[in-house]
Structure formats: C-alpha cells, structure tokens
Amino acid sequence: MSKTITCTTRDGRSIAFVDDIIGSGAMKDVYFSPDRSYVVAFYKTPQDYQAQERLQMIVGKYRESIFNQIGGDYWQHLFCWPTAMLEYDGRLGLIAPTYAAHFFFEHGSKNNDMLSIKGKEKEGKWFAAANLRQRFIDSRELGNWLNHLKVCLLLARAVRRLHMAGLAHSDLSYKNVLVDPSHGLACVIDVDGLVVPGKYPPDVVGTPDFIAPEVVSTSHLPKDDPNRKLPRRETDLHALAVLIYMYLLYRHPLRGKKVHDVTDELRDEQLSMGERALFVEHPTDASNRINAATAKPTELPWANTEKLPYTLTGPYLSPLFHQAFITGLHDSAQRPSANDWETALVKTVDLLQPCSNSQCEQQWYVFDNSTQPCCPFCGTPFRGKLPILNLYSSRKEGQFRPDNHRLMVWTGQSLFWWHVNTQIAPNEKLIDTHKQRVGYFVYHAERWWLVNERLPDLLDVNTKTPIPIGGKLELKDGQQILLAKGDGGRLVVVQMVES
Amino acid sequence: MSLRRLPVYILLDTSGSMRGEPIYSVNVGLQSMLSALRQDPYALESVHLSIITFDITAREYLPLTPLADVQIAEIQVPDAGATFLGAALELLIACLDRDIKKSTAEAKGDWRPLLFVMTDGSPSDVHAFRQAIPELKRRNLASIVACAAGPKAKEDVLRELTDRVVMLDTMDAATFSGFLKWVSASVAAGSSSAGINDAVALPPPPPEVQLVL
Questions:
Q1: Core-most of A138, A151, A222, A407, by most CB within 10 Å?
Q2: With contact defined as beta carbons under 8 Å apart, do A86 and A40 qualify?
C-alpha cells in the first residue's frame, strides 16, 4: 500500500495524494488524491519564473474569468482546468479535476477487447481514423453521427471561450481533447500551455497533423526570427478545423497522395503539411486526392472523397471547410473563427434527419436540400412525407426575413426556445426555463402534427387560427406558422417533400 | 489512406549466454512491448515490426508485419553458440532492400526505419560486422539504438555501429522490460507534441539505464 502525502497549495488549501504514479507524460507525473476526485501533477523539471507566473495566472485570474461568472459551471464539463499550484519536495505541481468516467473506454476494442484498452482514456485518434474505428473499436463505443456533431460543437465552444478570454490553447490535437462519441461529449485538457499574445509565448509548436502550415514552414528558423510563426489564436483555428473535419469524415484533410520529395520523406512531410499543404478535396487542383484504390478495405468508404465529399456536412459547415482548407489554409486571417464553427454546428444539428435503415452505422445525416433525400453513408433513400421548417425572424413588427436556418421534422423532433426566438442561443448562457421543450412533432395517421406545449402565441397565419397550449396543428406545404410575437419572434414557412 | 508505414526492426541476440533468465525476460518484455504499442492508436496505424534473431546464424524470426497482425511465439535459445551480429546485419540489409518501399512520384513510401539491437556479448564475426556497417549506413535509417546487456557486452564495438548505445548492467527482467518499454515510447514519440526548439528526439531512457553518447 502506497503512502498518502498531505501538503498545502500556494493558496493555503490542504490536499493529499497517494504516492504512486498513475500516469506519466512528457512533462509531468500524475498522482491520484485518496478519493480520486482530483489529481496532482508534478513537473519533472523545474519551471522558470515566467512559466510559474503563467501557471499562477492560469489557476488564478484566467480561471476565475471563465468559471466565476454566470454560467461558469457550464465550463466544468468542457475543460479540465487546473485549480491550484503547490510545491512538494522541491517539485512544482498542479491540482486538476479527475477526468469524468465517460472519457474512459467502457467496452474498448472488438473481440473481447483484443487491444486491452478497456479503462484507458478515449484518445480522440481512435475515433478520427476510419481504419481504427472499423477494424478495432467496439461498435458500442463509436456513437452515431449526431454524437460526433455534438463532440465537435462542444469543442468549438470550448475553443471559442478561450479565444474570447484572449487566450490561445497552442496545442489542440486529439491527444489534448478527450472525446466520448457514445454520449456526444468532449473536454479540453492540458490547458497549462496556454498562450497569451504578447505576454506568454508558446512552448510547443503543436502536434503533427494539427500544426498550421505557416508554423510548419517556418519551423527551421530560430525562435526569435521575425519571420518565424508560432502557435497563436489563428493556429488554434487551423487545428480546430482539422479536428472537426476528422471527427466528421474520419480522414485527414491534407494527407493525400501528392509526393513533394521522393528522396527525403521528412522533407516531404514538411512540405505537405507546410508550404505546399493542399486540401485533399480541392475543387480545381486534384493532385492531392486520397487514392481510394490503394486504401485498406477498412478505410473505405471514407477514403473515397468522391463518394463521401465534405459537402455532405451540409450548407452551414461546407463553406467553413472551404474557408479553412482552401481560402484560409495559407492565409490565416481568413480562417473561420471558433464562433463561426459553433454557430454552423448548432444549425447543422437542426438539419439532421434519422436514417430509415436501422443497420446504418451513422444513423443520422444532413438533409441535402434535394427533393429526393438519401443517406450519404448507406445510400438508403428517404420515403414518405418530409416537412422542412424554414425559419424567419422579425426585426420590424410584421416584417419577417429569412434566417438561413432550417429545422428538419422527424418523429420525436423537438421545438425549443432557440427556434422560437432568434435572440435565444443554445449555449452556456441558456437559462433553465429556456432549456425546456416548447413543442414536438409527430407523424400520426399519415399526417405530420406539431403539438404545442409552451407557446402562448402559436398561430396558423393563413387561417388566423391560434393553437392553444396542449393543442395541435397539421403541417402542410406552404403553410406559415407564427411561433412567437414581439422582438426576435420567429415565423416558420413549411415545405413538404414527398418521395 | 496514404499513410506511411513506420518499419521497426529489432535484432535480438539468442546466443548461448542468453539462456535462462535473460531470454525469459526478453520474451516477457517483447509481449508487453507489443501490447503497449497496440494501445497506441498512432503506432497501430503505422508501425510494422520485424524481428531478426542471431546466434550461430541469423534468422528472420518475424518478417515485417503490421503491428495489429504480429504474433510472436516464444523465442528459444540454443545450448551454446556464438554471437553472429555481423551475419544479422547482413540479413537485415537484405530485408531492408526487399521490404522498404521508396517514394515514387505517385505514392508515398515508408518512413525511414528504426533499428534496435540487443546483445549481451560482442560480435564473434567482427570482420563481417565491420563490413556490414558502411553498407547499413547507406540504407539511411532514422535511428539505430544498441543495447548492451550484462557484464560481457562490449560497448566499444557497438559504438562502431551507432553512437546511441544503452548499457544495461544487469540482465534481469526489470532491465530488459525497461529497455523494451523505452523502445515503444521511442516509437510512439513521433506523434506527441513537439517543442519549439527540438528536432526529433528520443524520450529519456528509463532510469535504470545509462545512455552512453
């Protein structure tokens, strides 16, 4: 039995840890508290004055600015943020919350966990590569495509919050983000390397696969060369775009077939991730396409960009991928912000349609805006009546303008306050009463119905019929439905697709 | 998906002096190295492993195989026998020439291979050993690490092969498994965060090992 050591943090709290290393990274050794509710991580090497000052800011001012505000609790689930510093036996340490249980494999790998990864951390890489997913991971761990969208949404939101606070993560990668696709959850870890522009420079260049092209192509220059590019907010945005692309399409956006140097593979890597980085789905330059013909069977169909192009992510995400990997790949100012990703992901969730094939591995897909919708993953077409609600909002009494936001209807689909009023957004600021469902949709006796649960103003505009709470309204093509009066109140125009 | 393979070659001394505890701990160490590597998704995607054993002859014990498909049966050691490391290097060169895919204009080739050599003595075929070294250098490996285990291991000779020589004072289970653990950490290191100043670097060796540079 290892002994328990008690010590005091810099801010005077008494803490304890069991003197038995549970994990060891490049920088730190990690120990559990006796009740395992938190961990203590000691740096292996002494940290200089500036690093210590930065850590002090991270556990202090930066932490408070994010967590000690209204809605601050929300971030407890999205970050594993260190809470205190301490010294023990000449070593500098940090206190951090223990990762939540759902970030450890419950079933692990296939065939009775042949890789023995049950109980290990769900490192994102397992879920971001088609071969690993299809060949090794137990299907109960994989989650469906809706959950993957949620993972990306939480990730974008966490990065947005950091950037709002003027911070940059500097080393976003699937190693520093825990994901739980089976529940649609994500958590940013290793925030002790945060970069504050002009104040605390980065101490890593990042992790291969996620380092921005400008950082890769200037990495040979000395650290103080004015042309050397180091991690900052814009490079986080490259890493975020790569992460989202990989979690939705299970392939890397820049790893195609193009060979830049036949004699030196390190230089080839340097060029293909740096100076000559090229999107595998570039619309006019096909030279870096993924060669689906040489892909492993377990990489298909994902290696086939013709069959599963990035545009399957729908009308809100596709332009952002275009911006991130075509216009903004070598022009960091053009990259979409974390907020852009968050907004597009929220809207994309509303465009999802359940696949009618119960064997479909992804189970959900984005409505492709066509009159004959079809699941891009398994090819199963939609059959039946499909209502689509187009959202409009008013800026002036009686005048409604399109919001470029649609809501797909399926049995069990819910209507929420953020659909009803344009001023309400489903994020950390959402108050409890706005989390409640206000209505739902059901297909009954070959008709689609909207059931009103909490909307006092619900009105069928064409017939001027109010729908009381508890009442229901049949959805019809061309119908206009007022969801709420007043500022930001929304109007819905129904389109009915039949196939 | 256009992913390069990372070939990893392990040369293992199976000369007579490895009988008993040494080979037992090498076998145990190999199994735990395999399972540690398989728990690393990066290694699982890229690493291909080959094992060459050498005593009185050199044998390709495990031809270059994707990590996921590797199965290693227990390695046996003959009663007695010399340490033909030179022959092992010759065999390795032949394997490299046969296995390693070079890049072409159309397809990405392999990463430069990693080589780990583990021996408890010094080569009995010094001439062949010295002949093979320049040939091997021409194959342009990414890194060569030699591990000299036990009191009879000759560091000087190994340093002709590489400047990365790890000395293991003892030949018990802990030192071998420590070394093999280090091998898997070195193999996995390519995927972790890279520092601002460093080029590709090996992680620090396990505490019980002296790295002679």
A1: A151
A2: yes
- B200 domain residue, yes or no: no
Please judge whether A265 and B108 are an interchain contact, meaning their C-beta atoms are less than 8 angstroms apart.
yes
Are A259 and B104 inside 8 Å of each other by CB? Answer: yes
Whether B124 is in a domain gets the answer no
- Please report, to the nearest 10 degrees, the dihedral formed by the alpha carbons of residues B208, B32, B189, A244 taken in order: -150
> Do residue A203 and residue B196 have CB atoms under 8 angstroms apart?
yes
Q: For residue B166, is it within any domain?
A: yes
Domains, chain A, in order of start with CATH, read 4-98 (3.30.200.20), 103-350 (1.10.510.10), 384-498 (2.60.200.20)
CATH of the domain at B18: 3.40.50.410
Q: Please count the residue pairs, one from chain A and one from chain B, whose beta carbons lie less than 8 angstroms apart.
A: 102
A161 to chain B, closest Cα gap in Å: 23
B2 contacts chain A (CB < 8 A): yes
Element housing A405 (H / E): strand A399-408
pLDDT in tens, chain A (499 residues): 689 999 999 999 999 999 999 887 778 899 999 999 999 999 998 988 888 999 999 999 999 999 988 778 899 999 999 999 999 999 999 999 999 999 999 999 999 999 999 999 999 999 999 999 999 999 999 999 999 999 999 999 999 999 998 999 998 998 889 999 999 999 999 888 888 877 787 877 888 889 999 999 998 888 888 999 999 999 999 999 999 999 999 999 999 999 999 988 888 989 999 999 999 999 999 999 999 998 999 999 999 999 999 999 999 999 999 999 999 999 999 999 999 999 999 999 999 999 999 999 999 999 987 888 899 999 999 988 899 999 998 877 778 889 889 999 998 899 999 999 999 999 888 888 899 999 999 999 899 999 999 999 999 999 999 999 999 999 999 999 999 988 889 999 999 988 7
- DSSP for A345-400, written as a single string: HHHHHHTEEE-S-TT-SS-EEE--SSSS-B-TTT-PBP-SEEEEEEEEEEEETTEE
Q: What tokens were used for A408?
A: 């797909």
Per the structure, the complete domain to which residue B20 belongs is given by 6-111+136-190
**Which residues does chain B have within 8 Å of residue A289's beta carbon, measured at their own beta carbons?**
none
